[in-house]
Amino acid sequence: MKNLHTPVLLSEVVANLAPKPGATYLDLTAGYGGHAKEILDVTRQYKNSVLVDRDEFAADYLRQKFPPEIKIINQDFYSVVLQLLQCGNTFDMILADFGVSSLQLDRPDRGFSFREDGPLDMRMDRRQSVTASDIVNHYSERDLAELFVKYGEEKSGRAKMLAREIVTHRPITTTKELASIIASKSKYSHTHPATRVFQAIRIEVNNELSEIEQTLPLLPKLLNPGGRVAIITFHSLEDRLVKDFFKESTSHGEESELSVITKKPLVATPDELVINPRARSAKLRVAVRN
Length: 290
What we know:
By secondary structure, the chain is α/β, with parallel strands linked by helices. The protein has 13 helices and 7 strands.
C-alpha cells in the first residue's frame, strides 16, 4: 500500500533511536506507519513490537501494512502503557509523535481543519462521545475564553472577544463557519487566525495534554537498560511537558532514570520543509535509559 502520511523528522528519528536487528519497538502514535516501517525494516522484530493508535482508520491501515505477527492496538496510548506495564513488557525503542496526521487534517469529515468545511468533530477516537460541537455550542463564554488562553495560548483580551463572538453566533455547526467567525474579528497574519482556537478545542476534545502528562513518567519503566525514547511535539505546550519530564528524569545524578541525547530539540531541515511544510513546528527530543 502507498504511504498516506509523510512522517516528520524521519531521518532524525531513525538516527537517534539507532535500531539494530532484533531490537524491540513500541510506537505509541503509529499513525500510518511511516516511522514504524523504517525502524522495523532494520529490526525485522515483529513479534515483540507494538504499534498503537487511537484512530480506527490508522489502526486498520496498520493491520494491512504490516505482517500479522506484529501487535496493533486501537486505543489511547496512556491506557496501552498501563496495560504493557501490568504485563511486564519492556522495549529497546519507544517513539511518540504527538502531532495530528495529515490524513486527519485533510479529511473534512473529521472536522480538524479550518481550511476545509466539515462537522465540528475533532475526535481522534470516534468511539468517544465528546466532540468539538459540544465544546463550541455548550461551554460558557467564560469557559471558552479560559480554554483559548490555556490550550490555544491566546491573549486574554482576544480570547474573551472570540468567546463572546462564538456564543453570539450559536449554534455553530461546521468548521468553516467557526473559522469565518474568528477570521471576521482578526487582523491579517501569516498564520490563519483560527489556528490557536482550533488547537485549543482539539486538545480539549482529545484530553491531549493530560494524557501526555500522565504517560511521560511511565515511559522509563517500559525501556530496557540502554533503550531509547524519542518524542516529537508540535507546539510549546507539548514541548514544555517533554522538556520538564526529561529535566526531572535526568536530575538525580547516578540515580537518574534517563540521560538526554538531544541537548537541544532537533527540528526539520530546509530540505524537509520543502517536501513537508507541516514539519515546520516539529521538535524531537531523545533520551536513553540508564
